[in-house]
């Protein structure tokens, strides 16, 4: 066990070094100016990246010892050709390493939440940089698949209905990535993004189409998902929740509101972290990725979803069984569970009123 704990500590150090390199574009800089035949000293990397040589040297030393960078006896560095893409382009593991530091910021207060007489949970505002990184994470994992993969997977003629023109709501839209993609691709439909976080909505409202023009079929609203505007009753043909259900303190109130605002013939599509609702099954199914899923829940999703005496405290690994039970209690039945291999670690729930 001591060896295992040592390995974990080393991995933690290397993960933080990867985070630093990604945020400062050190990997990209190194890839641009070096190769196996033309390794470089840290001084050249630092000059190109606009950083201090001594810090860059220690960063290089750390990652070379961790077998992430290569080094020769002259202490010159390069990235092996087979590793360049993984270290210089946005991808799930690289972004997740960068994302980890944003959910670790309030760890001292999180520790207090564990104590019996401590706080119920943490306010979303304590994760000051998480929203921005989450949007980058979503862009990396979702942008290419929302329209061509997810929409057809929902079925029920949703693609054709979007093309013809329907009214769509995105509950917990955050910075608006998903709803923007849909609004641009389906100009005949009307879209509303709703989120309780004013900062996220302010960012969303600045979004433009890919050609730089303004949206005419997209608006954003600051509102509580558990208490949406009364005027929304029986309004929407399609309601999305992109990973926004489990983070809520009362996802049951949210789903009851979703049931109210969707039309009688409408469709609700919910993407969420995939799990079985049994940790033993999850460990056997996902292997080491299960630890990442539960760990992410422990560090962020559970605290923000527990910050009230009446919170349900779901966490992101509440799993299929508990999710379906909650949705049933909120009025949704005959729920379809559809795998989404194009969204890492995610599953799609599709339901009617």
Automatic annotation (TrEMBL):
InterPro entries: Methyltranfer_dom, SAM-dependent_MTases_sf, WHD_Rv2258c. Residues 17-88 form the S-adenosylmethionine-dependent methyltransferase Rv2258c-like winged HTH domain. Gene3D superfamilies: Vaccinia Virus protein VP39. It holds the Pfam family WHD_Rv2258c. Residues 163-278 form the Methyltransferase domain. This is Uncharacterized protein.
């Amino acid at each position: 066990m001591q060896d295992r704990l040592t390995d974990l500590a080393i991995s933690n150090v290397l993960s933080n070094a990867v985070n630093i390199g990604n945020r400062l574009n050190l990997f990209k800089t190194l890839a641009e100016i070096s190769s196996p035949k033309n390794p470089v000293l840290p001084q050249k990397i630092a000059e190109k990246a606009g950083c201090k040589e001594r810090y860059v040297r220690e960063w290089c030393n750390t990652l070379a010892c961790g077998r992430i960078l290569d080094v020769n006896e002259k202490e010159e560095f390069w990235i092996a050709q087979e590793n360049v893409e993984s270290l210089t382009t946005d991808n799930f593991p690289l972004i997740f390493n960068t994302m980890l530091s944003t959910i670790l910021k309030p760890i001292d207060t999180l520790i207090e939440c564990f104590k019996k007489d401590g706080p119920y949970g943490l306010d979303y505002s304590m994760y000051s940089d998480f929203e921005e990184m989450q949007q980058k994470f979503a862009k990396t994992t979702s942008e290419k698949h929302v329209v061509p993969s997810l929409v057809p997977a929902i079925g029920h003629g949703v693609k054709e209905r979007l093309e013809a023109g329907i009214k769509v709501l995105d509950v917990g839209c955050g910075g608006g990535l998903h709803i923007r993609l849909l609004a641009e691709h389906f100009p005949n439909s009307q879209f509303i993004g709703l989120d309780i976080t004013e900062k996220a909505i302010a960012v969303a409202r600045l979004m433009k189409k890919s050609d730089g023009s303004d949206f005419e079929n997209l608006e954003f609203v600051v509102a509580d998902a558990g208490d949406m505007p009364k005027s929304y009753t029986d309004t929407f043909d399609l309601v999305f929740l992109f990973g926004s259900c489990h983070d809520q303190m009362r996802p049951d109130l949210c789903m009851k509101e979703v049931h109210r605002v969707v039309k009688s013939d409408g469709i609700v599509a919910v993407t969420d972290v995939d799990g079985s609702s049994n940790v033993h099954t999850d460990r056997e199914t996902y292997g080491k990725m299960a630890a990442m899923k539960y760990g992410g829940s422990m560090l962020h999703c559970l605290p923000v979803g527990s910050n009230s005496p009446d919170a349900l405290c779901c966490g992101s690994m509440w799993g299929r069984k508990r999710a379906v039970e909650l949705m049933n209690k909120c009025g949704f039945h005959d729920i379809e569970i559809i795998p989404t291999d194009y969204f890492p670690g995610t599953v799609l729930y599709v339901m009617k009123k």
